[in-house]
Amino acid sequence: MAPADDASLSTAPDAAAVRSLAVPSDGAAETGPGTVVWHRTDLRIADNPALAAAAAASDRVLPVFVFDPGFHDERGAACDARIEFLHDCLRDLDRQYRDVGGAGLTYAHGDPLDVLGRFVDAGWDVVAGATATGRYGRRRDDRAREELGVRFVAGDGLVRDADRPRDGWSDRVESWFASEPFDWDPRSVAVERVETGVDPDRVAGAYGVDSTKTRVPTGGRGPAREKLDAFTERIAGYPGSISSPVDAREGTSGLSPYLRFGCLSVREVHRHVDERAPDGRGKSMFVSRLFWNRHYTQKLLDWPGWLDEAVNPVYRGFNRDRHDPELVAAWKRGETGFPMVDASMRCLRETGWLNFRMRALCASVYFHVLQQPWRIGADHFFEHLIDGDAAINYTQWQSQCGLVGRPGLRLYDPRKQVRDQDPDGEFVTRWVPELDPLPAAHLDAPEKTPLAVQRETGVRIGEAYPYPVVDYEAARSEFRDRYGAVHGAAAARLADEEIARRASLSGGLGAARTIAADHGDARDPEEADAATATQTDLADFG
Ligand SMILES: Cc1cc2nc3c(=O)[nH]c(=O)nc-3n(C[C@H](O)[C@H](O)[C@H](O)COP(=O)(O)OP(=O)(O)OC[C@H]3O[C@@H](n4cnc5c(N)ncnc54)[C@H](O)[C@@H]3O)c2cc1C
After folding, report:
1. How many whole angstroms from 261 Cα to the centroid of ligand 1?
2. What pLDDT score does 30 carry?
3. Is residue 540's pLDDT more than 80?
4. Which residues, 6 or more positions from 94, have their beta carbon under 8 angstroms from its beta carbon?
5. What are the boundaries of the signal sequence (predicted)?
6. N or C: less crowded end of the chain, CB within 10 Å?
């Protein structure tokens, strides 16, 4: 997005406004004016560890969201639709505070350290929920802790207090799911607010936020609860609707953007489904996804480098020498000549959402077939996904590409995905309308359509729609050779404790050592066709 009149938004609130917040006359001055709750990705007042801690510590809390120019200006990695979704969530958070009798949410703007520093100078304490972040966020939070004394409150189910976080991890997460939510009593604290002149509309105007995406859900806790209720009703149909990109749109929960911005806590979702959904496969599969959410987030907590470089050093720079900007552009635009990939990439760009299988397919074709550097692809996803969550997106990309060094590379065949997941061509022709006149039988590989059919339907491959940008079989086999040549070395590196820790496998260091022992230095990686491979089961989180 282009900043429109960024200059009109200075750092706010200014120090005078912060000082002007009246200090209560009841002696609270001795303990300071109160506690600021710095909201980040926890845009709710229920089951919020930082808010509960603030309310326990002070009679006055002041909830703040800081619009950080680094997120909103040209350095920001989020598409406008994700920012608009965030803005919905913030308006909703403001309402949540008002609904319980508080004054609402304070919208601040500027470098969070500058903004929070003004409160600290005026005597306020600051608390925030601890979150898993990449290196930038970790540096920011470290500075906030060291320079301003910000207290980061854990309570998101991730393991922070153990030398080996993966030992007994699933038991700990399970007991966190079962534990009581964080609570606070709005009648026992005054929720304060300071007027800053900043609000989501002004920020949108100042930074030129204006999304062109369609079908983007409305952010906020209200819409999130509606989705959760509706999904709980239809959960029995969940297993049958996960894989097809058409069925998944209405069949999976649609909760990912709400979980990403913390409109609901993962624990709240777990509890709701546990208590209200009928027992069965749908429920157990869904609950295992909530574990995956925590599993991938734990990975980023364990190593902030996931966003920047391959977790296994052997794969650092893999595909870099093959970087071809035209191939990357064709993938981004949805013009690769592989209809399922093209439909998915156009759908991602227009709606900001794809189901798991299509995300995995696009990542696989990008890295294994087009053989392009993984980070560019992962960044593109992260930009366009409404649920773009650094912790899940980059770790999933590395897993799907095979950068960890585990055996069992998942190579998705884009043509098989059409036959299996979209046999009538509904998804493909919705997003690649130029193929609509072709009989569905040719949609898996339009380039093989007999010329007579091309003439008859007017769909000339090479004109109306491109030939595949690479020869699929040749590229796949070449990738296997290149990958296989170094996989043994990569697996062997998992014996290195430092690498094993950062890989943060669900089975801990033991699992990493077993892979190194069984597969280290092997000549060929084991391969599993993703179309038949099953994903990690809940039982694997031991
Ligand atoms: C390359 C790639 C990138 C991805 N990037 C993201 C991302 O940025 N943000 C994101 O939330 N999910 C991401 N996912 C995981 C998954 O595709 C989405 O969570 C899911 O499609 C969201 O739709 P839903 O909420 O309807 O899912 P549901 O099937 O209803 O699942 C419920 C919740 O479980 C969690 N979940 C489901 N599948 C996974 C998974 N495989 N890994 C981790 N958590 C999971 C999510 O929080 C999701 O909202 C990615 C997957 C891949 C392969």
Report:
1. 14
2. 58
3. no
4. 104, 105
5. none
6. C
Looking at the CA of residue 390, tell me the nearest atom of ligand 1.
8
Rounded distance from Cα 489 to ligand 1 centre (Å): 30
Kindly report whether the global pTM for this prediction surpasses the value 0.90. yes
Q: Give 254 Cα–ligand 1 centroid separation in angstroms.
A: 9
Judge contact between 56 and 81, C-beta under 8 A. no
Share of the chain above pLDDT 90, in %: 89
- The answer to whether domain 6-183+190-205 and domain 313-541 are alike in fold is no
Is residue 542's pLDDT more than 80? no
With contact defined as beta carbons under 8 Å apart, do 112 and 38 qualify?
yes
Domain ranges for the chain, please list them.
6-183+190-205, 221-300, 313-541
What is 313-541's CATH number, 3.40.50.2300, 1.25.40.10, 1.10.579.10, 1.10.3430.10? 1.10.579.10
Compute the distance between CA of residue 488 and CA of residue 13 in angstroms, rounded to an integer.
Answer: 56
The class of domain 6-183+190-205 in CATH terms is alpha beta
Looking at residue 478, the DSSP 8-state letter turns out to be H
Which residues sit with their C-beta closer than 6 Å to ligand 1?
252-256, 259-260, 289-290, 292-293, 296, 355-356, 359-360, 363, 381, 385, 387-389, 392-393, 396-397, 400
State the pLDDT at residue 98: 98
202 touches 9 (CB < 8 A): yes
Residue identifier of the C-alpha nearest atom 4 of ligand 1: 393
| Other beta carbons within 10 Å of 366 | 29
Return the DSSP state at 22. Answer: P
User: How many Å apart are CA 62 and CA 12, to the nearest integer?
Assistant: 15
For 94, phi and psi rounded to 5 degrees? -55, -45
Tell me how far the alpha carbon of residue 518 lies from the centroid of ligand 1, in angstroms: 30
